[in-house]
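[SOLVED] Predicted holo structure with adenosine-5'-triphosphate

Edit: marking solved, answer below. Original request kept for reference. I posted the sequence and ligand SMILES and asked for the 3D complex as structure tokens.
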Amino acid sequence: MSAPLIEFAQVTKSFAGPLTRSRHQVFANVSFTVHEGEIVSLFGPSGCGKSTLLRMFYQLTSWDSGRITYQGTDITSLPKSARREMHRAVQVVFQDPRNAFNPRWLIRRSMAEPLKLFKIVTTNHQTLIGEKLALLGLEDGLLDRRPHQLSGGQLQRLALARCLLVSPRCLLLDEASSMLDLSVQARMMELVKSLRTDEGISVLLISHDRDLVQAMSDRIYSFHDGTLSTDIAHTSDSSK
Ligand SMILES: Nc1ncnc2c1ncn2[C@@H]1O[C@H](COP(=O)(O)OP(=O)(O)OP(=O)(O)O)[C@@H](O)[C@H]1O
Ligand SMILES: [Mg+2]
């Protein structure tokens, strides 16, 4: 069997506490894998460390011990070009959509940024952007607004549409539909499922919505008292 696309092995994380030398441990020995074409969920109550795991994958925060790999290679030892390709192939929707867009820029400019960054060749960038917006039920007119002129749910959908522009192999979705009403959430999740079926995209879905993860996932890992397991039954659900 080939190496998982993403693997966290025995990862432990603590933050510095307010007192000198004190540490606050968020989780210990967390292990999970995401293989090609899988939808895997991380489920757990608020504050258990779900978003912290994503920030680690992008090396935005450190970890105490353990190993994080991409296609079998430790992410801290990837050569620059391979890290860049990983950043294209693994696209993330971070939890707060307001931080995902430059507040001074028109949405049109923010949407085009990854196409420039990853030198994506298309006959027409605007047409491609319009296609991805339509997949999420968004009008082109939103492109001429600034982030403060959009709802949280519109920004969440724009964030996912922007990920799709660079043909990712994997999506990391951190509460990516939390601001959507149920029908729009269902449309987004249908799209995610069809991307997996039609294009083999892998998905790591992060949520504290038990119903959502149960409906979507091939495998569910749940947090309980600072550890991660595949047993969802004993995990408290903060959304209920
Ligand atoms: N920079 C930081 N310094 C200190 N503690 C932090 C820092 N970032 C996060 N934490 C703490 O780490 C824990 C995990 O935070 P995280 O944001 O990963 O939770 P989460 O599972 O994503 O929660 P939610 O479901 O509310 O989004 C929380 O207790 C949080 O207060
Ligand atoms: Mg979070």
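OP edit: The domain at 6-97+167-229 is CATH 3.40.50.300 (Rossmann fold). Thanks to everyone who chimed in.
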